[in-house]
């Protein structure tokens, strides 16, 4: 999911911040970077929750969550989930798709794009092996996913409200301290 999602309300505030002194921009940029790193950590942690059998899935999806930061004056950070099947895991596939209304426009770009190429048999098998599923069940699981799709496993966008709260609180503290 490499496209941009803007935190609600931050763009309007960002315009005001750009008119403030560089030292303030630097402090706010630090808050933005910290929030981005926390978003990535929470998303990875969500993917690393234990299965009922006690195993942890620390597969490719968690490994593909990356952050990128601008300069101190940019007040810019980006968190992405780089795996081709990220959107499918986030919102599900086929008849099992569940997209929150506020993300419908963003999610629409992924509809029909994968054509089954994102979540391959090899990836399903690797996941089943990590989960400790006996080999004789790997093919039936793969066929079930191909026919019925996968249920949503939200890991990325569920972090947004938490991060907005953390970021806005941090920026508010900086601004209030400066005035």
List the topology elements:
Elements: H1 10-17, H2 22-47, H3 60-63, E1 65-69, E2 77-81, H4 86-91, H5 104-108, H6 121-131, H7 138-148, H8 160-178
Antiparallel strand pairs: 1-2
Helix pairs in contact: 2-8, 6-7
Q: Explain this structure to me?
A:
With 179 residues, the chain is mainly alpha-helical. It has one domain (10-114, 151-178). Helices cover 50% and strands 6% of the residues. It is built from eight helices and two strands; from the N terminus they run H-H-H-E-E-H-H-H-H-H. A two-stranded antiparallel sheet has the order 1-2. Helix 2 (22-47) runs antiparallel to helix 8 (160-178) and helix 6 crosses helix 7 (138-148). The protein is elongated. The protein starts with 9 loop residues before the first helix and ends with a helix.
């Amino acid at each position: 999911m490499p496209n941009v999602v803007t935190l609600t309300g931050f763009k309007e505030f960002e315009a005001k911040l750009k008119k403030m002194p560089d030292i303030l921009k630097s402090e706010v940029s630090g808050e933005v970077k910290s929030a981005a790193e926390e978003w990535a950590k929470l998303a990875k942690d969500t993917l690393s929750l234990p299965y009922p059998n006690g195993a942890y899935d620390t597969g490719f999806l968690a490994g593909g969550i990356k952050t990128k930061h601008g300069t101190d004056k940019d007040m810019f950070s980006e968190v992405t989930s780089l795996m081709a099947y990220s959107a499918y895991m986030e919102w599900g596939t086929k008849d099992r798709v569940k997209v929150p209304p506020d993300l419908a426009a963003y999610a629409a770009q992924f509809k029909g794009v994968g054509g089954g190429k994102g979540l391959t048999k090899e990836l399903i098998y690797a996941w089943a092996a990590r989960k400790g599923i006996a080999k004789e069940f790997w093919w039936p699981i793969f066929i079930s996913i191909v026919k019925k799709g996968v249920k949503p496993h939200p890991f990325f966008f569920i972090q947004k409200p938490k991060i907005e709260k953390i970021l806005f609180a941090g920026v508010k503290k900086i601004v209030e301290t400066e005035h």
